[in-house]
Design a protein that fits this description.
Elements: E1 2-8, H1 14-30, E2 37-44, E3 53-61, E4 64-72, H2 75-104, E5 112-122, E6 127-131, E7 137-141, E8 158-166, E9 169-177
Parallel strand pairs: 1-2
Antiparallel strand pairs: 2-3, 3-4, 5-6, 5-8, 6-7, 8-9
Helix pairs in contact: 1-2
C-alpha cells in the first residue's frame, strides 16, 4: 500500500506519523490487498470557528475511493476516529461486493445453466417441477426460488435454473423467472 502524508499550514509531528503508520498496518492486516493508495492530509484550521485541525483520509480501492473527513482540536483522536471510520467503511464495501458477487454466483457456480417451463406446482407442499425443452422433468423446492415466490409462478411460465443432482434425480439448485 502506497502511503502519502501531507501537512498544510503545519509540520507533521513524529508522533502523528507513527500513529498513521500504525493505523496503516492495522488496515493492511484487516483488509489485505484492498487499499492500494492511502493519503492522509492534516491541515491547521485556526481561521475556522471550530479551531484546531482538519484531517482528511483518502483510500483508493479497486474501482472506488473512500474519503473520511474529521475536524477537531487534537490530531491523535482525529486519526483514531478517522481510521476507525475508514475501517468500517471498507468492511461495508467488502460486504456489499461479496453480496453482489453472491447474487451473480448461482448462475456460474458449478451448476449447469438451463431453461424450461413450469410443468406443475404444489405451493402448499413448497415444490414443483420444471420441464426442459428436451422433455426432462426437474424438481425444485421453494427455497431454490430467486427474486420470485411460489405465488407468483404459474404453470407454463418460462424459467432459468441451475441443474444439480438431488437424492432422487435432477434438481434445480436455483430458479429465476426468464426475462
Amino acid at each position: 500500500m502506497e502511503l502519502q502524508i501531507e501537512g498544510r499550514n503545519l509540520d507533521i509531528r513524529k508522533s502523528w506519523q507513527d500513529k498513521i503508520e500504525e493505523e496503516k498496518e492495522r488496515l493492511t492486516r484487516h483488509h489485505p490487498g484492498l487499499v492500494h493508495h492511502l493519503r492522509v492530509s492534516v491541515e491547521s484550521t485556526q481561521q475556522h470557528k471550530e479551531g484546531g485541525y482538519e484531517l482528511v483520509v483518502v483510500a483508493s480501492v479497486p474501482s472506488d475511493t473512500v474519503v473520511v473527513k474529521r475536524k477537531g482540536e487534537a490530531v491523535r483522536p482525529l486519526l483514531v476516529d478517522a481510521f476507525d471510520t475508514l475501517g468500517m467503511q471498507l468492511k461495508e464495501l467488502q460486504r456489499k461486493r461479496r453480496q453482489k458477487q453472491n447474487m451473480k454466483e448461482p448462475e456460474m457456480a458449478g451448476a449447469t445453466f438451463c431453461t424450461g417451463a413450469i410443468k406443475s406446482l404444489f405451493p402448499f407442499e413448497s415444490y414443483g417441477f420444471i420441464v426442459t425443452p428436451q422433455g426432462q422433468e426437474i424438481y425444485f423446492h421453494e427455497n431454490a426460488l430467486k427474486d420470485i415466490s411460489m405465488q407468483q409462478l404459474a404453470e407454463g411460465d418460462q424459467v432459468r435454473f441451475g441443474e444439480g443432482d438431488g437424492d432422487k434425480g435432477p434438481t434445480a439448485t436455483w430458479v429465476r423467472a426468464a426475462k
